[in-house]
Amino acid sequence: MFKTKSYIILFLLFIISIPVDAQCAMCRAVLENEEGQGAAEGINNGIVYLMAIPYILIAGIGVIIYKKFFSQKKQ
To answer: Range of 57's domain?
Structure first.
């Protein structure tokens, strides 16, 4: 029951995405003066990717610890 609910919640979190703007106020002010907004989109995407990597690493370490803890408990 708990696994089913957690999978449903995880699925909904992946489906429902909100566009984010990760630029600070100074970066936004400088990049808004440009034509085409190509550099602004690149900077914004770079910030979002750099922000996501630590969360992915921590989640991976958490999964490894979780699996090791419960595999030892069963034996």
So the answer is: 21-74
CB 51 within 8 A of CB 22: yes
pLDDT digits (tens, 9 = 90+) for 4-15: 888 888 888 878
End-to-end CA distance of the chain: give it in Å, rounded. Answer: 24
Q: Where are the alpha helices (DSSP H) in the chain?
A: 2-15, 25-32, 38-74
CA 55 – CA 53 distance, rounded (Å):
5
Q: Please check whether residue 58 lies inside any domain of the structure.
A: yes
Q: Structurally, how many domains does the chain consist of?
A: 1
Q: Minimal CA–CA distance to 31: which of 20, 43, 21, 46?
A: 43
Whether pTM exceeds 0.70: no
